[in-house]
Specification:
Layout (H helix, E strand, L loop, with lengths): L2 H10 L7 E5 L4 E3 L12 H7 L6 E4 L5 H8 L4 E5 L2 H9 L5 E3 L14 E6 L10 H11 L3 E12 L7 H12 L6 E8 L2 E2 L3 E4 L3 H9 L3 E9 L3 E8 L1
Parallel strand pairs: 3-4, 3-6, 4-5, 6-7
Antiparallel strand pairs: 1-2, 1-8, 7-12, 8-9, 8-10, 11-12
């Protein structure tokens, strides 16, 4: 079942009583409000790192199209990608026509796209790479899609700054098991229906910058927020 797509589509159609939750494999869970996917403006750290963008823009993991709509209001051409058919239907219903269903990790999935002045990996979508090696592969896949002066902007979480005991314990268990500290195993629940487990990676800014350097990128700006969440801009060297 397309859990996230169903939740977004139903929210767009007026549903306000069903809950979307995200569960971690240690039992920790928290709400993932669909309303957040319909925000009128980027979050503060997203807006700061974006600055005054020029198009075209590629939004990977576009969800309900909140960034696509914000860009369109400013006359900036933008293409949205997502694996969720429900999310893409929601985008289209909201007026975002240039959206594609694609798995960015699948070989050849992005063939024919670009070049883009900015590629967005907001919503911590750099974590799609799952492992440091996978994130490196993702960056190398995206590099040819950029204009010569193009950039990748992403958000992630510095798990070292998450002080809640559940997060500290989870991080310590990852390290003890030989996994990256920011490794997570999640699944979504919508109104009692559960989706499959999936792996995700949070990268601290220092690790992200070092990893990007091995892929031909330089971290040119970092913006912190809340304080564990941050945004980073990468440009090719």
């Amino acid at each position: 079942m397309d859990i996230i797509g169903t939740a977004l589509l139903e929210y767009h159609n007026g549903e306000r009583n069903r809950r979307l939750m995200i569960h971690r494999d240690d039992g920790f869970c928290e709400p993932l409000p669909p309303a957040a996917f319909f925000a009128d403006a980027p979050l503060p750290h997203e807006a700061d790192i974006l600055g005054s963008p020029t198009g075209p823009v590629l939004d990977i993991g576009c969800g309900a199209g909140r960034h696509l709509l914000w860009l369109r209001e400013r006359g900036i051409a933008a293409t949205g990608l997502d694996v969720s058919s429900g999310a893409l239907e929601t985008c289209r219903l909201r007026g975002c026509r240039d959206v594609l269903r694609a798995d960015v990790l699948a070989p050849g999935a992005l063939h024919g796209l670009g070049p883009f002045a900015t590629i967005l990996l907001f919503g911590q979508n750099i974590g799609l790479g799952v492992t440091p090696r996978g994130v490196g592969a993702l960056l190398r896949t995206l590099a040819p899609l950029l204009t010569p002066e193009g950039r990748i902007v992403f958000t992630s979480v510095d798990t070292r700054l998450r002080k809640q005991i559940a997060h500290v314990t989870y991080r310590q268990a990852n390290v003890a098991a030989g996994r990256p500290p920011g490794h997570n195993r999640f699944r979504l629940e919508y109104d009692g229906t559960f989706g499959p487990w999936f792996d995700w990676l949070y990268l601290g800014p220092e690790k992200a910058a070092k990893l990007a350097a091995t892929c031909g990128f330089q971290a040119t700006r970092t913006v912190r927020w809340q304080p564990e969440t941050y945004a980073m801009e990468l440009r090719r060297v």
